Amino acid sequence: MSQRKASGDSGRATIRDVAQRAGVSVASVSRVLSGNYPVSDELRRRVMKVVRDLDYVTNAHARSLAGGGTPTVAILINNITGAAFTHVAKGVESAASLRGWLTLVGTTGDDPERELALVNLMRQQGVAAVILLGGAYDYDEYQLRMARFARSLDAADSHLVLVGRPPLEGEVPATTVDYDNEGGAYAMASHLLSAGHRRVLVLPGHAELTTAQGRLKGAQRAFEAYGVPLDPGMVRHGPYDYEHGYDAVEESLRQGAAFTAVLAGTDVVAAGAAQALRAAGLRVPEDVSVVGYDDIPLASQLTPQLTTVHVPYEEMGRAALRAVADRRESGRRRVGDADHLVLGTHVVVRQSVRPPSQ
Amino acid sequence: MSQRKASGDSGRATIRDVAQRAGVSVASVSRVLSGNYPVSDELRRRVMKVVRDLDYVTNAHARSLAGGGTPTVAILINNITGAAFTHVAKGVESAASLRGWLTLVGTTGDDPERELALVNLMRQQGVAAVILLGGAYDYDEYQLRMARFARSLDAADSHLVLVGRPPLEGEVPATTVDYDNEGGAYAMASHLLSAGHRRVLVLPGHAELTTAQGRLKGAQRAFEAYGVPLDPGMVRHGPYDYEHGYDAVEESLRQGAAFTAVLAGTDVVAAGAAQALRAAGLRVPEDVSVVGYDDIPLASQLTPQLTTVHVPYEEMGRAALRAVADRRESGRRRVGDADHLVLGTHVVVRQSVRPPSQ
Q1: pLDDT digit string, tens, across residues B136-147
Q2: Which of residues 227-256 of A touch B (CB under 8 A)?
Q3: Distance between CA B57 and CA B65 in Å, rounded?
Q4: CATH 3.40.50.2300 residue ranges in chain B?
Q5: Residue B187 contacts residue B309 (beta carbons within 8 Å)
């Protein structure tokens, strides 16, 4: 490790050490490291090699998370194994990476205390924004908590972004990037109804989750539009997981419920539902149709491939990062309509729906 | 928001404000917030409600990531949408959460510069450890880079942990939590061979990735043990994704390769392989058997459910966090054999293997 000698045995390498060893000017090193100026690939490679060799810590990184340096955005997510959320995070990261920004992901495990601790931590560290992902629980306490986060981040020159959640009530300094959740559910239910299905098992998610509320409401509107009554007994609430899909179908079959289609709240719930149908000797889609929501990669990996609602998760992540970057550039602080973005959803027709058999 | 008045309009709430409003002693608040002492649920709830109401930022959080406060561990991951890695991260988080620690996840996008920037950032922030997840590329430069990371973290009273990677060469202050990668591949290939398969398409992964090297080597050893030649033309390298599985099978079929089984390097590759077989009119497992590796949830959601190798990803994450916590408690700095942990793997038999048809 003779290379480390250049930096002295105790001290850190300086930008001058890097410039000298790379045979370029200090200004050139600075341009490469800032990431804000166009530099040739060759210069970038040469400088970064020396940076690695000397284990050089830039002042930007030393200051980083503290305002002046590399902007960093924090993404807070309930559960890191949720595929939809990780695609939003990937979108944030790809847009951040383009700008030379860093991203950090913290997980809250659906625990308000961990969420609070992480938001406070990130505020202290001076992140450019805190991006909260995923459906929210529709309690008054939630609105209050988010408003407090928004104001405390705003006061610290940071910013709160909610992705995949409805906007906050009142004048709160936060940006919302949402998708047409109810419209997607309306289109998906209409697809089943227009194929002739009348008895549909609906698994919208947890009753208190805003995402599930929107998906159920969209389905209800479609049933109304088709003049088909939606039996409340055919709606089963539960978590967005494989086990819930499996158990809800198994139990409905055991209770003798007659249905020709399953409208699942997510692709993962649909996967569980399809497996339970097959375990009961029913074929998908010949005997029972199954549809999902989200269009995560799983949807096209299942057999049959799942008809579902495409939600532009990665694009939502990119839009969230762009909103933060635009805001910083323009120095804009005003809260207005432009701070609420709603992206479109659409049905992706694959192989899991057929008209009901007689 | 009248509650905020307690903290004054400009200043932050103090621990005394919290204690007063909660009607408990300052010491009690401190015990709740430290997370290191047993406290009653009722006390915890009461204090945390006030903490939220006052938007109180603990000194621990204010100091946090800077040594004295809530220990934080950083997880660095190539790609946040990789299911295996997210399960390791989940294991780290659950073990961290038990101890009241926080975790942050950074993604490197397989870019050594971003990896460097994140390691430096985390070192500056005083994290208790940096945990690097996932297969490494087998280059000399990698060994040097990791040794530098390990030494610079060690010098900053932090620690490098490699999970799912082979240990570093020489005396390097790092902990490795690995799994019996080659043994799992040996067992999986043996399972196919003992079912009678002799012509097997092998998709181990990228040739330079340590994970893929181990999986291929395990398979080769099994073929040798069974006295079956493994045709090098039947080994196709490529990324661990669905598209590679699909394309490799499609191309092999087009070139007229005769095989009765696919030994895929991951479950996701297996999912792509199975889809390509079906697209060519072949049934799984009646015409061609398919096996995976990893045992992520996808494996049991596919039809047929995938026979695969179970890797204890969550347990590896928990073990990594425990190693860091034990190290901090004991003040241990010595590098020894105990710093290399290898967890076991085993074949999970499901429905995707049958003896070859004639």
Answers
A1: 777 778 888 889
A2: 242
A3: 14
A4: 72-179+313-343, 181-311
A5: yes
